[in-house]
Structures are given as C-alpha cells and as structure tokens.
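Protein 1 of 2
SEQ + STRUCT:
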Amino acid sequence: MATFRKRLHEIIFEADTKAGKAFDVALLIAIVISVIVVMLESVRALDIQYAEEFDTLEWVFTFLFTSEYVLRIYVTNKPLKYIFSFFGIIDFLSIIPSYLSLFVGGAESLLVIRSLRLLRVFRVLKLSRYVGESNQLVSALIASRRKILVFLFAVLAVTIVMGTAMYMIEGRTNGFDSIPHSIYWAIVTLTTVGYGDISPHTWAGQLLASIIMILGYGIIAVPTGIVTSEMTKPNSINNTEVCHNCGEDKHIDKSKFCRECGHLL
C-alpha cells in the first residue's frame, strides 16, 4: 500500500515520469475545457439552447476535480499542509461552487447560485501548477517585492503631489472639484490610460499634464526591469521533485534528499 501511495504521489505531484506528464497534460486539457464551458454558459443564447449539456459537462468536471483533490490529500503525508496551501485552496474553490448550488434553493436565489457557479473560473489558476516557468516568475516577484513596494509608494507620492497641484491650478470650475478626484485624474494620466472624463483647460494645467504623461512612460518600465533582473539571476531550483513525506517542492536540481525533512526523494 505504501508503494502504491508513493507511485500515485509521483504521478500526481511530479512531472518527471511519463505517467506524471500524461496526468498533467490530461488535467490541463480538462481545466481549459471546463473554463471554456463556464464562459460559454454565460452567453444567454447558448445557455438556453444547451443548458442540459452544460450541466452534464459541469458535473463531469466537478467529479473529476473532486477526485483529483481527494487523491492529493490521500497521497501526501501532511494533508493539512496541502489543504491550506495556495493550490489546495484554489483546488477547493474550483469544486465547491457546484456543491453549494445544490443547497441554495428557490427562484429568488437563482442569482446567488449563478454567482457561486462563476467561482469555477478559479480553475484557470490551477494552470500555473503545471507550467514550470511559473515557479521562476513567482520566485522573481517574491524576491523583488520590497523594491516594487518602494516603487509603488514613490508613485503614490507623485500622484498625490501632482493631483493636488492640478487641483490648485485648475480648480472646481474646470472639473477638478476635489483633491481625491484630481489624484484619480493623475493616476489615469500617469498610467497613460486617459479616460478623458476630465481634462485641464489652462496652459499651466496642460503643461503639468504633459509632464505627468512623459513621466508615465518612464515609470511603466521600472517594475518590468526589477522583475527581469531577478529572473535573470541563476536559479538552481528547477526540478519537479516533491517530497512524499512533507510536501516540500523547492529542491535543487538532481537532489536525492529533501531540503526540509531529509527524506529520500
């Protein structure tokens, strides 16, 4: 039985074996199709015409993902670690809406049921588990979080100053009726979105707006550079080995023992 669980663990949690790759590919296809079904179901004409087919497909996917969720809990030695992990929560959110909809009855609750069922789109987040490069991206984002936070605070300070300055220059007569509203305009302008709902009318306001626009082009590139610099650093954690004993998945390539508990991989 222990050997069977270990084999099942390798298939479900790792992608180095043929069976593991096949499992990942099959699950990827199922996730993509299930998300497409959810999106198509939101099209009223299609929902009316194919309501029964959509329902059948949804319960097939619900059963499939429920089985996967239960198996993941079964094969790991520390089920609570998986259940409360990021992917464990995503897996739970991807199946629970269908079951909750069974207990919400009455015509007045149809909108609530629909909202719950829309949570199935969380399945798209399951995709990142099967894309190896996502680990590198997540690691880069975590490593650069302090720099990005400092950058965001700097941008926030700039928008507050610029918004306040625009409020003083343009004033209520030109649509800048409060500092918060002016800060909103500064954010929209700095990010080069430009809704056009309010705009400066005086030459001083237009000059300030031009400075913010030019500044915006430079600011947009900063977070990209921060994350890219982290991604280009050497990273030896690039395998798919998951410890059967503790569930640790960040191991140096070709490791034979778990970096967390020392268990044989």
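Protein 2 of 2
SEQ + STRUCT:
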Amino acid sequence: MADWLAAIILGLVEGLTEFIPVSSTGHILLLGHFLGFESSGKTFEIVIQLGALLAIISLYVQKLWRLATRWPFDPEARRFVIGLALAFLPAAVIGFLAYGFIKTVLFETPVVICVALIVGGLLLLWLDRMKKVPAYLDADAYPMRVYFLIGLFQCLAMIPGVSRSGATIAGGLLLGTDKRSAAEFSFFLALPTMGAAVAYDLFKNRDVLDFSDIGLIAIGFVTAFLAALAVVRLLLDFVSRRGFAPFAWWRIAVGVAGLIGLAATGGL
C-alpha cells in the first residue's frame, strides 16, 4: 500500500476513534501492524493525535477561553478547573512512572490490544444496560470525589485497547453520571491528558524523531482533525439517543478480527 494512502487511513481512524470508547491507540497499533506502517520514533503516530486534539479546542474554544480568563475570580469556573486537574493527576503520575513498561511491553503486544478491546466491549455493554438513575447530569458540577475517581479510571487506558474515553465514561457511569455528561467530560479531560502524553512522547523520542516525511504527517494530521471534528459534533446527541452499545459491539468485532488476523499470520 502506498504510504500516502496508509497516512490517510491512519489519520481517519485516529480522528474517528479518539473520542469514542473504542480505543484509538488500539486501532492505530493494530492497523499499523497489519499495514506494515511504522514511522521512526513513531513520529507520525504521535503527531496526528494533535489533529484530533485541535478538533476539541476548535469546538469548545469559547468555553475554554471563558475558563482560562475567569477561573481566578469566578467560583464555578475555578471549581471546574480544579476538578479537571484532579481528574488529570492520576494519569500524570502513573504515566510518568510506568512510561517505559507501557511503551516497550504493552504497546508492542497486539494480543493484549485485542483482548482489551473484547473485554472492554463486554463491560461497556453491561454498563450501557445497567438500570441506574444518574445523580450527576452536569460535567461542570460533579463532586470533587467523582472528578478524582474518574481520573483513576482513566489510568486503565494505559493498557492499549482499553480506550481513554471508554475508561473515563465507564468510570463516570459507575459513579452516577449520565451518559451525555460523561462523554462531554471525557472531551475536556482529553485536553490535559493527551496534550501531556504527546509532549512527553515527543520529549522521550527526541533523539529518534524523524520529520523527513512531513508530507505524510501533514496528511494524517489534517485527516485526523476533520474526522474528529465530525465525531465530536455528533457524538453527544448520538450517545443520548443510542447509548454505547454500538461502540461495544464494534470493539468486540475488531478484537475478534484482530485475533483471527494474528492467528492467520503467526502473530499469536
């Protein structure tokens, strides 16, 4: 396959899967494995995540600006910023301490990704069908305890295939949030989490980063941005109407297909 076509496919998959509970990392790693696509120092895979992140920033720019300018003197804005920081803290600490193990062991084991996709899909099906009246309907007003515990759930996503958004949404549902606000909070939590992860990845790989394929990186970046923009615009209404079951079944299908593909190619 031509590299430019692989760049479009991977960028499209990154944008479509980053903010839905199916694991963008799991999809990108599995696709890269089967397409035989891998950039030096994973520069391509790291940078295209910024395209998806830019989609969140562009859609929520007014709210982000309001938070940035009003938090020093607005109690509600300050409360949300503190809650976001609490939710980000566990991933920042564990990600820093376990970075080497995550990148050299978990990210290099496609079987782990497939199993995580399947198990996560089954759990998401269970949560989606759970009959529980939500106690918290506004992501701006969760109790501080809920923010922090959602952050702990997010740490499960350090296992590729689990899904960052899936872990935060699942945690939110278990803690009493409704589906829509849980999905929206996962958007905001993506900003510090993904931003810090990409920055740290770039720093750790600074000696092997290769931007010689800047054209391919640009293609992947723009494709990821446009795809993520469409997903974020539609996701909250979709989740409110349909729940998370469609994503759960997709996870299971991809995980099973991945295991079959690995078995057929001697990867198991």
